[in-house]
Amino acid sequence: MRRLFLIVLLVGAASWAAIYHYGQQNQLRQQLEQLTAVLTVENDLASRTTDAAIKKMEEAAAKDRNKPADIALLQRAEALQAYVKQLVEALRTNSDQLRRATGNKEAQPLQHLGAPIGAGLSHDAPRRQRLERRLATYADTLRLLGLLEAKTAPLFVPALEANTPVVEALADLTRLESELLARHTYALQQISKNVGVRRWPTHPLAFATAESIIVAPGGTYRAQLGVTGYFSANELRMQMTYDGRPVPLTPAGTGLVRFHAPTRPGPATWTGTIRINSNDRDSTFRVTVPYRVVHR
Amino acid sequence: MSQPRRFLIGLLVSTLFGAAGFAYHRAQAQQTATLTCITALETRLMASNVQRARAAKSTWFNLATTVNKNYNQAADVAVLHETNEIRGRTKVLIDTLHQLRQSWQAGHRPELRQLPTQLGQYALFVKKFLPDKPTQLVPTAGWLSGFDSTAAPKPAALALLTKLETQVRQLEARALQTQAEKVGTRCCFCFDRIGAAAIPLAKTVAPGAVYQAQLVLMQAASTRGMHFSANGQAVPIDPATGQALVQFKVPAARPDQPDTVRAEWRGRAQMPWAAGDTTLEITVPYFIVKPRQH
After folding, report:
1. Which of A132, A162, A192 is the last residue of a domain?
2. In 3D, which of A188, A152, A154 has the Cα closest to residue A76?
């Protein structure tokens, strides 16, 4: 009798542990499904962002009169974009097929989280091999073009077995899509840097110009104080001259013009030029500055 | 009890143990696989959160710049204030999530009981700024469903908190986008008026003296909304030039003062709209020179 009681107790404990474990496992899978849903929203956003990046490149190229070099880069970006679109489409098709194969509807949420996915995406399945080849081709292309971020792990099709629960398989495919889009976004960013005229940042500069630098004791000092945006010669290569002579630079990247004024009083002028060379285009800006030579 | 019966019971018990052990082992393996998957997804969501944070900052910056370029109209400024509030509330909530996550990471099991309320309050606040309000449902309902902080494994809790951050940032992004459209950020305001400019130290110079100027490649900038001061005194802006006119009396000469005294004044320009409160300072030299006795 005591033995029987012991056995019943053991069976009871084992079943309780099993039920507890099942419950916890189910919770984890539900959580995994939620993570997958949120990451899918992020992937949709990443896809839209790449579309916007392509459009921006087109506009930048058009603004720079569609130079052949820009068009070539644009075509490269568009080819990569088309390839990634197909890959994302293939990943999503695979997800849908997994859903249907495990008795789930295509919409969220899943009814059978733990259903095994079967052999459709196992190691030797042709579908999986095709997917792997295309991912490898994409990664190789990026590497050849120097568009792969340093220390990037290769894109792996997740290790899906026939008995992998469907929720894990879907999560892995969504993660793969996210990693693919991250690499693609980086590649497009790298390409777009070289399309069109580069837009340089301007820096704010406070400046003051006095009526005269010399004031008599008790006199009034007058000056104009203002702020402007300027392009720093430290970032954008430029040659500056005044009246044909070279101008040294200040640490802030402005030119410092200094010369001895003429000895004859009266109005005078000097001319400054700034030549910049950006994206194979030369531009020269000129300014003529009047001033007065006066006896104090 | 006979020998075979005892043997049979023994066999039954050990089979039961064996089966239970096997089931336990399998369940553990399953849980490990699920947790690996959860952590892998969390890594991607973290990368996404970094992107979203950057994007939100840039949306806000563009909005603030646009408001300033549109002459700081009252309606636009109100939108900017709302936007600042959205950013502030988002930051508070995300800081809370980060703290909770750090606590989990350090091996504690902090209560998440406050979170649904905090998320709900945030959602109620942000909903005012979302374009579509068809559902009266609080969007955060169910974000924590099925999560039990007393039993959950650590990786699951960490991933949950990262996921909540993504969801909060998704709401914020939609709200900020709506705000940005209200002030017309989308319209183009490229100013390509670039030119060489010279900034002389003074407009006049004595014969044979050193003339000095800065030569810069300039882009037209607006001084709207700026605040200028010279030696700590506010200086009004001349609307015609957009520049401030500094004017001050130089002290009369003391009896023992040399003929030439080197002096300087400090100018300051504050730009309220740029990231933070940017202040530019400039020190301008001048000379106080006694007039020559004729």
Report:
1. A192
2. A188
CA distance B123 to B113: 17
Indicate whether A15 belongs to any domain: no
* Dmax (CA) of chain A: 128
Of A143, A165, A192, at which residue does a domain stop?
A192
Do strands B278-289 and B260-271 pair parallel, antiparallel, or not at all (unpaired)? antiparallel
Here the tokens at position A186 are 């980086």
The structural domain count of chain A equals: 2
User: With an 8 Å Cβ cutoff, are B37 and A256 in contact?
Assistant: no
CA A255 distance to own-chain centroid: 34
A141-150 long-range CB contacts below 8 Å, 24 or more apart? A141/A80, A141/A83, A142/A80, A142/A183, A142/A187, A145/A76, A145/A187, A146/A190, A147/A186, A147/A187, A147/A190, A147/A191, A148/A183, A148/A186, A148/A187, A149/A183, A149/A186
Task: Please tell me the distance from the alpha carbon of residue A210 to that of residue A90, in angstroms, as a whole number.
Answer: 69
Residues A111 and A28 in one domain: yes
Give the β-pairing of B243-249 and B237-238.
Answer: antiparallel
Q: What is the predicted ipTM?
A: 0.72
Among A227, A239, A278, most B C-beta atoms within 10 A, so best to mutate, is A227
H-only helix segments in chain B:
3-69, 74-105, 115-127, 154-182
Chain A partners of B34 at a C-beta cutoff of 8 Å? Answer: 25, 28-29, 32, 165, 168
> Looking at chain A, which residue has its C-alpha nearest residue B190?
A199
Which chain B residues are closer than 8 Å to A18 by Cβ?
20, 23, 27
Q: Are residues A178 and A235 in the same domain?
A: no
Structural domain range at position A240: 203-293
Closest CA in chain A for residue B278: A204
Residues sharing a CB contact under 8 Å with residue B150, sequence separation 6 or more, in sequence order:
B109
Q: Note whether A187 and A218 are same-domain residues.
A: no
Residue B209, helix vs strand vs coil: coil
What CA–CA distances, in Å, run from B141 to A140, B48, B102, B124, B290?
Answer: 44, 22, 24, 11, 79
Taking only the tens of pLDDT, chain A with its 296 residues reads 677 787 788 778 878 877 887 888 888 999 999 999 999 999 999 999 999 999 999 998 888 788 888 999 999 999 999 999 999 999 999 888 888 888 777 666 777 777 777 766 666 678 888 888 999 999 999 988 888 887 777 787 777 778 888 899 999 999 999 999 999 999 999 999 888 766 677 787 888 888 888 888 888 888 888 888 888 888 888 889 999 999 999 998 899 999 999 988 888 999 999 988 765 567 888 888 888 888 86
Six-digit token string for A1 = 């009798």
Distance from CA of A229 to the nearest CA of B (A): 5
> Does one domain contain both A154 and A183?
yes
- A151 plus A266 within the same structural domain: no
Do A74 and A160 sit in the same domain of this protein? yes
A259 and A241 Cβ atoms separated by less than 8 Å: no
- Contact criterion met (CB < 8 Å) for A32 and B38: yes
* A235 and A147 in a common domain: no
Q: Is the pTM of this model over 0.95?
A: no
If asked whether residues A173 and A143 sit together in one domain, one would say yes
Cis preceding linkage at B236, omega within 30: no
Secondary structure (3-state) at B46: helix
